[in-house]
Input
Amino acid sequence: MNALTIALVTLAAYIIAYMAYARFFSRRVLGLDPMRKTPANAFEDGVDFVPTSPIVLFGHHFASIAGLGPILGPAIAVIWGWLPAVLWILFGSILIGGIHDLASLFVSLRNRGRSIGDVTRSLVGRRAHILFLVLIFFTLSLCMGTFVRVIATLFSDTFYPEAVIPVFTLIFLAVMVGLLVYRRGVKLAPATLVALVLMFLSIWIGLRTPVTGVATPVWVYLLIAYAFVASVLPVWLLLQPRDYLNAYQLVIRMVLMYIGLFIARPEISAPAINHTSTGLPSLFPFLFITIACGAISGFHSLVATGTTSKQLSRETHAVPIGYGGMLAEGLLAMIVVLACVSGVSRAEWFEHYASWQGAAGLPAKMDAFVKGAGNFISNIGIPVGIARSFIVVMAVGFAMTTLDSGTRLLRYNLEELGEGLNIKPLRNRFIAALAAVVGIGYFSLMTVDGRPVGLLLWELFGTTNQILASLGLLTVSLFLYRLGKPIVYTLVPMAGMLIMTVTAMAIRLRTNYQAGHWPLLIVGGVILLLVLWLVIESLLAFARHRGARAIPEEENGEQTV
Output
């Protein structure tokens, strides 16, 4: 099979899906209204609620949801062969992920920009609301704490110290663009062009002057401090312009990779189905857990209902940003798969993926993608060393983007938790941000048996993240049910995802019990009980709302359900 064929089929399928399925779902099911006032316009405060142009907001949303997820997940999932990964990314993003992201954004728009967890208070009840927020807090803290550790490792002398200068240059340029555009009235286009030129110049500088000699713990503390500052700054000053510029970086690199793929037209070197790797778990359900971002991810609903909904200036912009952002991430995940299965030789592929344990390590996952993608870009005449540096900076930069957005989401989560539990100090954004970075610091700095807690518990993130996606779809379905709208397009995917994730969690619990991994067993068991509790509460809510009057259309933008 030629890799170009898969790329062209994916692109064609995504165009058709966007023009047909997304349009149908947004008009006939959701009923998006371009004239309805959005939370960004209704509650504009210059900090979190800021009406934003769709192109800038797309950049923020795309950069936030992408991160390292659509790189690391597909880069390891090809261990089962290229075919399962390709099919899950293609159909998952079109039928499940895109619908999940768009519908989550819709729910938040119709509920004053509240998060998906906070909306459960009105739909299901106070108890479910608190349980959902606690689950989100654990997931975000674990994820961001681990990301801090991963970024610090990637900055180290052993990995990619040449990425330090470009990554921090981007932060400086983002602040400058934010000030120039929003405070000095400079046009966005020339500011963007100058910033992009300086960004790519910084990559050349980073290659010549890598930042070495900084210990990993020092990077951890610096990153935690940065996360705190970034989470309390107005979105227009750092979050929006940094994610917008980062999205441009990603798009440029994706285009270069696809052009290189078109020129080379490589044959796939990996097997379509692989069962030979040592210690390989069963494809079902673990493929659907391993590839989250790129197909469907619960983190996306947190971004959509946490930051994106508070910046959307028109309801209909939800389609290109929510559904379109998911498809763009699918394109990224697909080029990662193709880079890992056709950008390297057959011998290199089998070396990378000889065992599950080896492929699951950070060096293996990054190395396979960096080599393959770098080889694609080198086909257009860029030296392979520089091409690989492009890819490295992209990966690390997106990890930083996720850290920034994730910490802000965690801050929102704690503010909502403070309101739900009537803890007044947590309603203050600075105190909530401080509590957020304390949670992040716990998972990145605390150790058990010499391992950071985040890395120790990381295997729980995949299942917990997909459980959040299932619960997000369940919440969306309940909201649509209350509106008197069809729920089959969200409820069926929800059921499928819930079955897969609960099955995966149960298998992991049995494995951890047999191996005597008590921290993973206890924490995983508690999460599973919380999930089952939330599902039961939600099903009871469906029963309570049966036959209830649908919410009048004129109330949707002004009050919660």
